[in-house]
Amino acid sequence: MPDALLIQLIVNGIVIGALYGVVGMAFVLIYKASRVVNFAQGEFLLVGAWVCWWLVAKWQLPFVLGFPMTLAFMVAFGLLLQVVLLRPLIGEPIISVIMVTIGLSIVIDAAMKWMFGVTAQPFPQVFAVPSIAFLGLRIQTVYVMSLGVCLVIMAGFAWFFKFSRYGLAMRATAFDQQVAQSLGISVRSVFAASWAISAVVSAVAGVVVGIVNGVSSALSSFGIKVFPAVILGGLDSVFGAVLGGVAIGLLENLMHYVDSRWLHWGNLYHVAPFYVLVGILMLRPYGFFGTRDIERV
Amino acid sequence: MTLLLPAGDYRTTYRADTTIFPTRGSRLGVIVFIAVLAAAPAVLDKHLLSLLIQIGYLSIAALGLNILVGFTGQISIGHAAFFGFGAFASAYFANAGIPVVLSIPLAGFATTAVGMVFGLPAARLKGLYLAIATLAAQFIIEDFLNRADWFTGGVAGTIAPPFSLLGMTFDTDERYAYVVLVAVILAFVLAANLLRTRDGRALVAVRDHYLSAEMMGINLTKYRTLSFGISAFYAGIGGALYAHYLQFVSVEGFTLLFSIQFLGMIIIGGLGSLLGTLLGTAFMVLLPEVMQAFTDALAGTPIDSALGLRDSLAYLREITIGLAIILFLVFEPDGLAHRWRQIKAYWKLFPFSH
């Protein structure tokens, strides 16, 4: 007896999970290239979504114009952050780097609330058809779109790392900075590029979520949810981030189902990923696809 | 850390080298400082006194975090959750009929137990992975506090009876300040002495080079978990003092942002410095006050109306907290304690700079 709610939640889980996966990839990209853990990843979504909303809703620009402008802005944003904040910290202990990105996330979060308020703002209608029928289910067009966007980004990442010159340079840098540098790769520009790409990709995810749910500070929760996802998949695996993201998205929504059906705890779905996170860290800290460089002591 | 001793003043024994007060002046300074604090309730107005009490209990919790982060080199992004747990635990024990004097240390031990549970990953993980594990701890404990109505009173919150000793009730700010003062002195004396013992040096060794520490026979698992326990204990005590100060605890306050504020305190003060913990906590408590004064001063000016300062004070505070953390890490990574040492050195070496 297939439950309509269950199927709906599974579909939601895959869509949200794919978005987690995209944000996870952006996170892993920075981590792989420069060993920086970006606690402000969720705020990138927020900035991207607000900028796009501002261009489209406030300035009445058509979406096809506003969206590329947002992406261009995010490139500049990512580069600026890397050059101004993160470059002076290269070689500093990990806690400094973690704390700088945490501080950054607070600043961006509060600044966004200050500038745009705390209420969720809806995007103007982007698609002509609000929902389509699929196997007897009504699925919102944006869901289909967002899944498509995720797949395109994932394919783009795969192509970028496998075939492009810059992707190769990035992999080389991730593997061994010094060797890469001695072979003529500009590690500086690789670091900077990883931040720019990461910001752009996160912003795409932010805009997609913004179109579905409206833009609000709640978006930055993606930056927190990304941790269970990337730890599950392995911190330095792009592929793992995608699978981990989908797994966490599914888990969340299935927990939602379990909760609404039997437990009635109310917010189990919100915490369940963190129980999983602790479990993975205890059993398999390098995740399922990550490099085993954890020393067991 | 270089200690500046006058020429010809050598230490000849280990005892002299590990003494808490290297000179007579330093001891005198601490005594005067405590005397001034003891006189504070009689002199200060209510608002300043409440700030002082806040600095007191927060500095105890921050001290625990500094032992974990500054001395042992671990990291925790879930300190506020432990602080909150301590607050509720103490209120719970006190409501169950245990005298508040006992319920505060009991809450400390209960929080230690919780800290140890989440410290178990700490025994195996370090750096970034540990940070993420404690992030999970923050959310799990926060969720537990939200859900456990029998323990926290749920949305309604819970009432914590006032501190009383020998038939005297410490329910006013003037009286409670002394309770906090005594607790702060005890906490700092304990921490200072911990660092002079074998266990304390082992913690520092774990931070400086954990592999070498292990080679020299230090049980890493033990000391990593231990430092987690100690930090949770201090957080629990701080939280308990907070609960009996307000005499009411509700579940909303113990968020991730609060945890980050604790980290901000020790970074701004100086990692691995007892004095720094105090300075950093004071900085973090007074920062919103300064912001308040700043916006009050700007009230009615065009800047105020252009930015809507009055309505956005909360965001402004958050921004300054974040900015303070970033700026200190970039420009003064050793914190206020380092600046204080430089001032002392300048004073001592005057008029020569080296």
Describe the structure.
The complex is a heterodimer of chains A (297) and B (354). Chain A is mainly alpha-helical and 297 residues long. Helices cover 73% and strands 3% of the residues of chain A. Chain A is built from 11 helices and 2 strands. In chain A, strands 1-2 form a two-stranded antiparallel ribbon. In chain A, a hairpin with a 2-residue loop joins β1 (131-134) and β2. The longest helix of chain A is centred in the N-terminal third of the chain and has 31 residues, at 4-34. Chain A is globular, with a radius of gyration of 19 Å. The N and C termini of chain A lie far apart (49 Å). The model of chain A has no long low-confidence stretch (mean pLDDT 82). Chain B is mostly helical and 354 residues long. Chain B has helices spanning 14-17, 24-43, 46-71, 79-95, 100-124, 127-147, 149-152, 173-194, 198-208, 210-215, 220-246, 256-269, 274-298, 302-307, 313-331, 335-349; strands at 158-159, 163-165, 168-170, 248-249. In chain B, a hairpin with a 2-residue loop joins β2 (163-165) and β3 (168-170). The longest helix of chain B has 27 residues, at 220-246. The interface between A and B is large, with 43 and 48 residues.
